[in-house]
Prior knowledge:
By secondary structure, this protein is α+β, with helices and mostly antiparallel strands. The chain contains four helices and nine strands; from the N terminus they run βββββαβααβββα. β3 (24-30) and β4 form a beta hairpin. It is elongated and about 60 Å long. The protein starts with a strand and ends with a helix.
Amino acid sequence: MDIYETPLPGIGVRYEFQAEGGDHVGVVVRRDGKRDIALYDREDPDSCTGTVELSEGDASKVAELLGGTNITARLDTLRHMVEGLAIEWVAMPAGGGLTDRTIADGRIRTETSASIVAIIRGNTGIPGPEPDFVLKAGDTVLVMGGTEAVRQATTILTG
């Protein structure tokens, strides 16, 4: 599927694609962080039949609903393929644990054998974060390893 990108000076960027069902869909990512979803008329692709404005939080929720289940399904498949593999999404607390500290500070890999494989910060995914990566309140940390290792890593992360 092709996604077309059009800069909108002073506004943001518009992304458009043709859905498999034939609908023409657009998403405007505005500089203020908001998103607009537009559905175009099938007969007249220059005519918009409706829009929905989403805040950054709304956009995150929609992204989770549309893609989160696919990610979770793939992780569940991986978990079943590797006996004993535990996968945990850990929300960083407002304070304590490793909040406002680096991954290296927690010595998670050394102390538990679990691995931090990705961080989600806002709308951004950060795969394979480096040891000097500073964790912030609200980050979601993807931890993988053995069941006990992941439990211990979660304790280190959250305090």
